[in-house]
Design goal:
about 450 residues, alpha/beta, 4-stranded parallel beta sheet, 4-stranded antiparallel beta sheet, 16 helices, 13 strands, elongated, binds zinc ion
């Protein structure tokens, strides 16, 4: 709202309440859809690590024009479409180690609360039901309308969400839309219909977080009209609503927001065929949340390669130290994260730990190996990319790497047996065969270890 950063002062001591606008479940998620989930998961992890008891709400918009159109197209009931894609999103979030929200309300489960909110708005003279089954919010009466997006009401185009005949002002927006024949609807005192998208979020935020809460998040494209209208509804009802706003930028292609047609090949489940969830998360979470992330296959590959270097160091450190390093959050990492989640600066601290850690391995300096490994693990935990996190053990990617690890160890055992019987031609053939697959074998005091180049 202020376009500046300021110290985080929660409404309730030691607590942080966050509302994030979730997906409209009408298609499988592409990487542009899940970036917001990753960015805000990092925020949540950092606040939790900083000692706050975090309540995190991310809703599901399970009724929408797009879902109804998809239902016609896929010859399925609308609720089946919504459930199918809600599950696709849940799978994608799980593969990316995005923690499940504290509560994940569906819009269709909160129609009662939406009706209560509309009743309140009508009583307060902020909204009106002109008799056609719609309910509108009267935007001219609101003094703070458009302060988030910094627009002038007189410059605004009419809200294209309903027949203008019944509106007092063409810029008034629909809280509720009268039922159309064949469409799903819910009964209200003003006639049967279905909720407008903006009303859903105001009602759900109020239900789970109360009249005022700490942080409202969402993608940059939601600033107007969605968030502006959420503010309008909640403030007109007399609620304090969000104390601060965080908006994540987009994943772009050629500088443009990733479109659905371009995004098809970049669906999360497609990318997970080539990359592990932990690698995709490392890529998506690596940019500052307010910076655009320009997608290219090369950039994703490079991020994955960089992550594997870090992972290799942690595996080597574990072998040398004889135990998985415990996670410790370093001072430089803390400074970076406290500055509006400056992830790129936080990543620079990991690179420095990696450089020092690898040097320590060369120098056989176990204390320095441990120190750097612990700080790297502490940082990766906050970024949701800790390779020792059990969450990654249950995803497809990790099953694959476990199988790969087993297969390579089998090959290494064959190689050891060949050496034992002095069949060096056979042992070299195994080593060369693995090398041809991009797998490097290094003989160490702890036995052979492998890495992928
Ligand atoms: Zn929303």
């Amino acid at each position: 709202m202020t376009r500046t950063t300021a110290p985080f002062k929660p409404l309730k001591k030691d607590e942080a309440s966050i509302y994030l606008c979730g997906a409209t479940v009408q298609a499988p998620p592409h990487i542009g859809h899940v970036r917001s989930g990753v960015n805000f998961d990092i925020l949540r992890r950092w606040l939790t690590k900083s000692g706050y008891d975090v309540t995190f709400i991310r809703n599901v918009t399970d009724i929408d024009d797009k879902i109804l159109h998809k239902a016609v197209h896929e010859k399925m009931p609308w609720w089946a479409v919504a459930m199918k894609y809600e599950r696709a999103f849940a799978d994608a979030y799980a593969a990316l180690n995005v923690m499940p929200p504290t509560y994940e309300p569906r819009a269709t489960g909160h129609v009662t609360q939406m009706i209560e909110l509309m009743q309140k708005l009508i009583e307060r003279g902020a909204a009106y039901a002109p008799g056609n089954g719609d309910v509108y919010l009267e935007v001219r009466k609101l003094t703070s309308y458009l302060t988030l997006s910094r627009q002038k009401l007189d410059d605004l185009q009419p809200a294209a969400d309903a027949d203008e005949t019944y509106k007092k002002d063409p810029r008034d927006f629909a809280l509720w839309k009268a039922a159309k024949p064949g469409d799903p609807s819910w009964p209200t005192p003003w006639g049967a219909g279905r909720p407008g998208w903006h009303l859903e979020c105001s009602a759900m935020a109020h239900t789970y977080l109360g009249e005022a809460f700490d942080i409202h998040g969402g993608g940059l494209d939601l600033v107007f009209p969605h968030h502006e209208n959420e503010i309008a509804q909640s403030e007109a009802a007399g609620y304090g609503f969000a104390q601060r706003w965080l908006h994540n930028a987009w994943v772009t292609q050629s500088g443009e927001k990733m479109s659905k047609s371009l995004g098809n090949t970049l669906q999360v489940h497609e990318i997970l065929k080539s990359f592990r969830g932990i690698e995709l998360r490392w890529y998506l979470g690596g940019a500052h949340y307010r910076s655009m992330l320009e997608y290219s296959p090369e950039a994703l590959q490079e991020a994955a390669t960089n992550f594997r270097r870090i992972e290799n160091f942690l595996n080597r450190a574990t072998a040398v130290l004889g135990a998985v390093p415990t996670a410790i959050v370093g001072d430089a990492f803390t400074v970076a994260m406290n500055d509006d989640l400056a992830v790129p600066a936080a990543l620079a601290t990991i690179s420095e730990n990696l450089r020092l850690g690898n040097q320590a391995i060369t120098d056989n300096d176990n204390a320095a190996i441990a120190r750097n490994a612990k700080e790297i693990r502490g940082a990766l935990e906050i970024l949701g990319c800790d390779p020792f996190d059990a969450a990654f053990a249950s995803t497809g990617g990790s099953d694959l790497s476990a199988a790969l690890d087993g297969t390579i160890k089998l090959a290494l055992a064959e190689r050891a047996a060949a050496r034992e019987r002095k069949d060096f031609a056979a042992s070299d053939a195994i080593r060369d065969g693995l090398a041809a697959l991009g797998i490097t074998i290094e003989d160490t005091a702890q036995g052979p270890r492998w890495s992928i180049n």
